[in-house]
Amino acid sequence: MGAIFYREMKAYFSSLLAWSLIAAFLAVVGFFMLLGMMQYAEISASAMQGAMPYNINTYFIPSMSNGIGLFLMFFMPLLTMRIFAEDKRSGMLDLLFTYPLSDWAIVLGKFWATMVVVALMLAFSSLSYIFLSVYCTVEWPIVLSGYLSLLLMGASMAAIGLFTSSLSSSQLVASALNYGALLLMWLLYIPDSRDAVYTALFGKLSIMSHTESLLKGVLNAQDIIYYLAVTIFFLYLTVCFIESRKWRG
């Protein structure tokens, strides 16, 4: 697994892929943070004139973390589209089958390399809260809980991305499949739905419905188990698919 991990890390950072995605992600997050802070300044000015006070830890930080989660949904397919598709196109995947590596070692090596890039994206974006703490009182447990939810969400998205990438030798097709899968899992969540039956059957399957408690600083075991289950399930599907390819010859 270590050899696969090192190979994928080298592929990410020896090209412009990882650096450009990290830079673009931080630019989007920074712009979103700027807009949020401008709104916070306006509300704070209104509060000084007798309006309802605005708690940055209750409203701004959870909203910011939720926005970062949505941005991840758009960036993850670009990060994972090549992970298996390029190997299949170049024939490298068939060569990997001849090495003394298990299918799980191949999949997990690629998965952990992807997670390093995701962790870097989130780590750099968290620096904005350090600057924010200079002007406001930031409750760090809420920030850390929010980033835990983002890391778990990123892991599940990475696992889905590995699976969709294993389905095709075309990076464009793999990216489109990943976008479709993530969009579907997002649209399953309807916050304002009054249909209790729908919410009970489908709402809890959404990748976005399990962030609410964590974004508020409340650690809910069900939410953590959900993300871990989704991650393991799609990693297992990926292993099964590449194993079936091996048997097909």
Helix/strand layout:
Elements: H1 2-13, H2 17-47, H3 56-80, H4 82-90, H5 92-97, H6 103-125, H7 127-135, H8 140-166, H9 171-187, H10 196-201, H11 212-215, H12 221-248
Summarize the structure.
By secondary structure, this protein is mainly alpha-helical. It has one domain. The chain is built from twelve helices and no strands.
Order of helices and strands: HHHHHHHHHHHH
Q: Give the C-alpha Rg.
A: 20 Å
State the separation between the terminal residues, measured CA to CA: 23 Å
Please count the helical segments. 12
Mean pLDDT: 83
Percentage of residues in strands: under 5%
**Structural class by SSE content:** mainly alpha
What kind of oligomer do you see? single chain
**Total DSSP E strands:** 0
The coarse overall form would be elongated
Portion of residues within helices: over 70%
Largest sheet: none
Query: What is the number of domains?
Result: 1
Q: What are the segments in which pLDDT stays under 50 over at least 5 consecutive residues?
A: none
Structural overview:
By secondary structure, this protein is mostly helical. The protein has one domain. Helix content is 79%, strand content 0%. It has twelve helices and no strands. It has helices spanning 2-13, 17-47, 56-80, 82-90, 92-97, 103-125, 127-135, 140-166, 171-187, 196-201, 212-215, 221-248. Helix 1 crosses helix 6 (103-125) and helix 8 (140-166) packs parallel to helix 12 (221-248). The model has no long low-confidence stretch (mean pLDDT 83).
